[in-house]
Model the fold of this input.
Amino acid sequence: MGSEMCIRDSSTTESPEPSAPSGGGNTASAPDGSAQEIALEMVLDEGWDADEFHNCLEPLWDKESNWNHTAENSSSGAYGIPQALPGDKMASHGDDWETNPATQISWGLSYIKDRYGSPCEAWSHSQANNWY
Done:
């Protein structure tokens, strides 16, 4: 399907964990902290429990991008923490989608909710199919 996201492979650019997101863009009140802290807060705000984050979302996005908000798959063009394909579809959550981890996480959680229902269902699909 055209809206599918690709997994990260050895050609994905990796760098250290990003620092707190910068302001700007259309993202409303981006939380401070590491990408993982932001994601945990958003997971809980969505009504999922912490296990959805620790057992499922954290390893899913470890696999996809190592939580690197500038990760780009050189073969597919998938971008960011959730490895959106194409990356610019994350603009629906903020015009700062290329630089703001919170915008990427917000988009990624919406994608997961709409397509799979929960991070654990997305992780299960990823484990079975090597993509989500």
